[in-house]
Model the fold of this input.
Amino acid sequence: MNISHLKAFLEIAATGSFLKSAERLHITQSTISARIKTLEEQLGQPLFIRKRDGALLTPQGHQLVHHAKTAVQAWAQAKQQLSLPDQLESILSIGVQTDLWDTLLLPWLDVLKQEHPDVGLALRVEYSETLLEEIHQGKLDLAITYLPSSFPGFVSDALYSDELILVSSHERPPTQEWREDYVYVDWGREFQRAHQKAYPGLRAPAFSVGSYRLAMDYIYRNEGSAFVPRRAVEDQLKSGVIFEVKGAPRFARDVYLVQSITPAQSQLNQMAIDSLTRYLRDHS
Done:
């Protein structure tokens, strides 16, 4: 079965459009239609219901999605491994939420490389929504995100929960106003709901960002306050570089490890997960 046919199938399944998928794959609409027709003939099953405004997966098409992703991922990994340096035996693709790079991924990678020097690593640092999309498409072996997967065929294991605390560039009494220079960090919908409940009368902040690291860079430069993970700023709190705002509410942000139920590299995945589990146990 031609891998390009499976890639075309997955694109249409994701976009619901032959035209849009052809544009994304840089081929003509007639070419992508021919690939799907050939795939349907090989399988002896219709994969899409064609409509004037797009295409919908048939029940048989839904069943094929997971197998197609596995095949495309396995092919990509095979191509990578054929060009591996002599000292490497395999490559593991890991995606991590941007704000977990410093606090989780870097120290874990030190352990992983020490325990398994023969494994190459392909790292992707992005926001959780993008990482989930990429692991669903078979582009990643593992993803560490702030969101669980809602897709069938994937499992999301909670690793730990980050405590979000309000910190400020200045030490403030509990009654002192801190909201004028507040930087809103978008921690997702759950945080947004809890934040609105805690501060029902708070007007929209003048400055908002999608990463606590960007918020901290801004605060160090311009002063201000923001909700950030305690574990990420413990040293700064101890040294008096920043201060926790006393009396402020605290929020939680769960961290998830997402992978396919039937990963293409199950043994390699488990090796990495075991290493991560040991690291978290030793540093909890």
About this structure: Residues 111 and 275 are 7 Å apart (CA to CA).
